[in-house]
Each structure stands twice: as structure tokens, then as C-alpha cells.
Amino acid sequence: MGEAVDGLQSYMKGAKADSLVLLSTTALNAPLCQKLNVSPILGFLFLGLISKTRGWIQDIHTTEMIADLGIVLFLFEMGLHLDLSTLLSMKREVFGIGLGQFTATATLIAIISKTLLKYSTAAAVIVGWSLALSSSAFVLQLLKDKNETDSEYGKSSFGTLLLQDLMVVPLLVITPILAGTGNGTISQAITKAILQISMALIAIILFGKSLLSPLLNTVANSRNNQESTIGLIFSIVFGMSFLTEGLGLSNTLGAFLAGMLIAETPHRHNVETVASPFRGILIGIFFFTVGFEIDLSMIRSQPIIIASTVLGILTLKTAIATAVCLGFGLPLSTSQRVGLVLSQGGEFAFVAFRTARSLGLLSEEETTYLLTCVSLTMALTPALEGLGGKLEKKLEKKLEGKLD
User: Fold this and answer.
1) Is the backbone of residue 69 left (phi > 0), alpha (psi -120 to 50) or beta?
2) Is residue 5 one of the residues assigned to a domain?
3) Is position 62 within any domain?
4) Residue 298 CB-density burial (10 A; 0-12 exposed, 13-18 middle, 19+ buried)
5) pLDDT value at position 313?
6) 3-state SS assignment for residue 224
7) Reduced to 3 states, what is the DSSP secondary structure of residue 190?
8) How high does pLDDT run on average in the chain?
9) Is the pLDDT of residue 248 over 70?
10) Domain range spanning residue 204?
11) Quick one: pLDDT at residue 284?
């Protein structure tokens, strides 16, 4: 009996055990979090932290590679929602509030990182750019849960997130180029990035104009419609990802452009319906791996530094977003609520910081510190959104009282 148990344990080690942990996590996390009335993303973060601490996941590297596919599909889905007509209908929210919030936040954090934290110029740019982003996954889910999507608050938050999503692509493109600039300047790196992006755009647009619609039409008219659609979607997304990666750019750029091209076709909604479950599972695994980056020993050894950084990020981002919203004519009650809900760091900061670490722009300790702080800001988002809602009601009541 003992030999049989030992043999089974030996057989289940490695990839088999890792697969069962990941699949059971994605299956059980959402219903458990629903019962506990907490965000599923927090559940993934916690389970990832416990899994690494307890040694439930053996092959961390492979798990993170699988999780990266979730980011590729997430960018693809973002591209599906970012067609030209959507952007034009939300000009104030996207290119006004969103651009103002992103530019001011990225610039100020980069200056602080350079002058106070003594990061290199390249590292300061990446840190500023990354921390200016908020969590689309957290914020959009909260807006949906509170039925605020169509409100002024919801539209302003969503428009800002759209602009931030657009800025993710150049962030991931520029990061490896900044690492290889040598004695060159950042402007030279950005110029090089623009040239590489142009080459990728030409190749992908040519494919989209000549082959994409005929391929989608052929698959839509086939008998095994769903299976063929799934196969074609993954071929297009990963094919374009490999293309941009082969040109020295981010693989997420190709996925994002693939989504934008399909968004202009009549097959957009069908493609989104088919791809959504796969994206959901893989992005869940991504959040699971984010938990790997939370360093409990660092929190215990440097609680004041960690708490100060988290508070600083939340305060700075809230203040800037609130001021920008006020500048574009939103009332104070709505502006501060937008500021609070967008005050956390975003999921793509994890991708950017990991990439910067692998390229030598950030040290292991700096990366762990930043990832831990961003994770904590995300964990506080539901509470901050609730606070924003309460403050909004109080301000509106005060205004009503003055009017009466």
C-alpha cells in the first residue's frame, strides 16, 4: 500500500500536479469568492501566493509562460473593443481626461523615481509609465457590478481606461528597446520603436485587407463553424504575435492589432463570444501568477516603506485624476470618485516590471518591491470604490441642501 502511494505521488509530481492545481483554481475560485463576497482577482492573487509559499506549483517558469498567453488574449479582446468609431464617440473621455491623467501621472512618477529613488532614466520612464496605468480588470468589473457603466462616472472611468489600454502597447514595445539603447538617447529609442511599429503595421494591415475577411467568411460558412472559428482565431492572434515579436517588438502588439482588424469586420461579436472563455481562463492564471510576486518577507521586514509607497501611489493617482476630471468640467462628486477607482496600479505593470527585470533595467529587489506594492493597491480597490460612492452621495446631498 505504501509503495503504491509513493509511486502515485512520484507519478503526479511536476506538470501533472501543476495542471491540476491551475485547473481546480480556475474552476473553484469564482464561486468561492462569490460566497465570501470578494473579488475573484483577489482570490487568484491569494491562491497564487499560497501555492508558491507551499510549493504546490513546481514549474514556476512554465506556469508564467502559460499566463502570458492570457495577456496576449486580453490585448486581443481590448483590440476588439477599440475600433475607430468607439474612440471617436468618447473623444473627451479618452483623449481629454484619459490622456491628461496618463501624461501627468507618468511624468510625475518618472520624475520622483529618477530624483528621489535614484533609478536610471530608462527605469524611471518604465516605472512612471507602468504606474500611470490602472487595472481594467478590477475597474470594469466594479462598474458592471454597480450598474455604473452608462453613468458619467462610468463613462469617464472607462474612457480613461481605454486611453491607458492604448498606452500599454507602446510601453511593452519600448521597454526592451530602452534596455538596449547603450549610449543612445530615449528619443532615439522611441524613433526606432516607431519605425518597427510601422513595419509591423504595414504587414498586418496588408494581411487584414487582403486575407482576413475572406478567411473569416469561409469559416463562418463551414459546417464545423465553432471549431474552425477557434482554430482560426488562435492562428491569427498568435501568428500576428509571433510576427511582431520576430520584428523585435512586443508579442502583445500583434494581438492588439489583430483585435482591431477583426473589430472592423461583421464577425466581431462571434469572435469575441468564442474567444472570451479561453481569455477568461488564461487571464485567471495570469492573476494567479501575480500572487507569486507578493513577497511576505519584504512586507514584514519593511512595513513602513511598503505602506508609505502604497499610500503614495493611491494618493498621487487619486489627486491627479480628480484634478483632470475637474478641468474637463465634471462635478467634484464625480471627479473624486473617478480618481479613487483609478488609483490602483494595473495588471500590465506586472508584465512591464517582469520584462524590465529580465532586461536588467530593474534589479530583483526593486522588481519585487514594485510588484508587491502594486498588488496591494489592487487589493484595496473595492474598498476605495465603495468610499468614492459614499463621498459622492454626501457631496450631492450637501449640494442639494445649498440649492434648497
Assistant:
1) alpha
2) no
3) no
4) middle
5) 96
6) coil
7) helix
8) 82
9) no
10) 41-51+73-391
11) 83
DSSP 158-185: HHHHHHHHHHHHHHHHHHHHHHT-TTS-
Give pTM, 2 decimals. 0.75
- Cell numbers 528619443 correspond to 187
Decide: 182 and 122 in contact? Cβ < 8 Å. no
Q: What DSSP assignment string belongs to 94-136? A: IIIIIHHHHHHHHHHHHHHHHHTS---HHHHHHHHHHHT---H
Q: State the pLDDT confidence band at 14, using cuts at 50, 70 and 90.
A: low
Q: How far, in Å, CA of 71 to CA of 75, rounded? A: 6
> Does residue 398 lie in a domain region?
no
- Grid cell 454597480 in the structure block, residue: 146
Number of domains forming the structure of the chain: 1
pLDDT for the residue numbered 295: 82
What single-letter amino acid sits at 272? Answer: E
The per-residue DSSP string of 176-217 comes to HHHHT-TTS-HHHHHHHHHHHHHHHHHHHHHHIIIIIHHHHH
Domain with residue 95: its CATH number is: 1.20.1530.20
Single out the residue of 357, 61, 85, 70 nearest to residue 241, CA to CA. 70
d(CA 142, CA 381): 9
Give the span between the Cα atoms of 147 and 32, in whole angstroms.
23
> What pLDDT digit, counting tens, does each position of 74-90 carry?
778 877 876 667 667 78
Say if CB 127 and CB 347 are below 8 A apart.
no
Inside any domain, residue 21: no
